[in-house]
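Input (structure):
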């Protein structure tokens, strides 16, 4: 198959995302005012607690077996490698461009993490519907297996994101708080003519404010407890629980036969869950389009910072990803399915994880800057993801 034909195949899922995303952006504007911030928040809760868990469980329980779970062992390693290389490149961007201290964690986090769940849930089924892919002529099987890969990727990615990126954004919030305290002390020192003892006391307070806080930021035990608490929270989140139960039902023949198949006594439960899961992908895409409109209202970030993040995610990481996946395939570490290798390569060329926006809201730090980075990285993703996807399909053909 020719390169231009593959380019057309790869562009279809991205165009679908753009069309539905633009609709979500239109609904979020003041002209329609349907998908406003509160509406997106409520819809996101429905997607998080109902639609996404239903989709994950219905797909995994039907398509994944115990042998599949064992053979996919390289996927968590691959996601770890994407975050390692992305984090190192993000650190270089920070050292070269020197953003404000409270933006350093945001830049590294957006370079290191990818949208391992939502975007793959959209792209993989769409590309499996196209003719001429190297993934076989059975579109239904390809779509189901692709969703299984995406579900596994989403579960693993959420744990990585909520441990590593969470700490990066949290450290940014601590730096911002320290800078605000330092600025207040310096302003107070300039406005008040105090005696030498008071000046000495003020300087000590200023030095203390700038130093790391042992109890809040430097205590190794408290950080370990907080990270474990966050991991536990992620493991009990509805999508993650659905993934765990989906793997359990898929890997256990007795449980699988209860709900899957024409003769399954509880087939109506599986059918009902699958029906709910059908609302996941359009809802996620509408929310994504609506959220990106926030970046149009903010410009408090240097353009070179955006260029740095875009280059890391769409230039350097995909090249590294090709080398890593090719090396793993050459060593016999991957299953024979070309779709699995395609998913591993996609991990290196997707835009930043949307969960980072939730973290900036949680810590009240760099929210506007995060929206701007999202806007541009997801706009560039329309071109970059299409081109790299074409390259991956060509390599796997």
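Output (sequence):
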């Amino acid at each position: 198959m020719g390169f231009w034909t593959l380019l057309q195949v790869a562009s279809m899922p991205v165009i679908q995302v753009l069309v539905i995303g633009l609709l979500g952006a239109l609904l979020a504007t003041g002209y329609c005012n349907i998908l406003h911030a509160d509406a997106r928040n409520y819809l996101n809760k429905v997607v998080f607690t109902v639609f996404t868990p239903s989709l994950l469980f219905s797909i995994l329980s039907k398509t994944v077996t115990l042998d599949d779970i064992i053979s996919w062992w390289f996927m968590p390693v691959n996601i770890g490698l994407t975050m390692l290389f992305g984090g190192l490149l993000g650190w270089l961007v920070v050292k070269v461009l020197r953003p404000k201290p409270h933006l350093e964690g945001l830049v590294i986090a957006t370079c290191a993490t990818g949208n391992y769940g939502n975007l793959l849930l959209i792209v993989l089924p769409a590309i499996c519907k196209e003719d001429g892919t190297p993934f076989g002529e059975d579109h239904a099987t390809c779509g189901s297996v692709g969703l299984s890969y995406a579900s596994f990727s989403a579960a693993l990615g959420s744990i990585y994101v909520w441990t590593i990126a969470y700490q990066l954004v949290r450290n940014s919030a601590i730096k911002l708080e320290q800078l605000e305290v330092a600025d207040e002390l310096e302003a107070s020192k300039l406005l008040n003519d105090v005696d030498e003892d008071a000046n000495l006391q003020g300087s000590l307070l200023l030095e203390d404010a700038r130093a790391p806080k042992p109890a809040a930021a430097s205590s190794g035990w408290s950080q370990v407890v907080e990270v474990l608490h966050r991991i536990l929270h992620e493991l009990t989140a509805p999508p993650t629980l659905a993934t765990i139960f989906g793997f359990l039902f898929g890997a256990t023949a007795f449980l699988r036969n209860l709900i899957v198949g024409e003769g399954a006594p509880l087939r109506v439960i599986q059918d009902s869950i699958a029906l709910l899961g059908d609302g996941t992908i359009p809802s996620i895409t509408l929310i994504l389009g609506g959220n990106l409109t926030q970046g149009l209202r903010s410009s408090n970030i240097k353009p070179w910072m955006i260029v740095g993040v875009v280059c890391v995610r769409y230039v350097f990481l995909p090249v590294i990803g090709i080398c890593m996946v090719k090396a793993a395939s050459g060593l016999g570490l991957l299953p024979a399915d070309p779709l699995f290798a395609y998913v591993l390569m996609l991990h290196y060329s997707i835009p930043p994880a949307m969960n980072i926006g939730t973290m900036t809201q949680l810590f009240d730090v760099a929210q506007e800057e995060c929206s701007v980075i999202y806007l541009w990285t997801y706009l560039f993703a329309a071109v970059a993801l299409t081109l790299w996807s074409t390259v991956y399909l060509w390599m796997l053909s």
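Notes: The domain at 3-178+226-396 is CATH 1.20.1530.20 (Na+/H+ antiporter like fold). Residues 323 and 345 are 9 Å apart (CA to CA).
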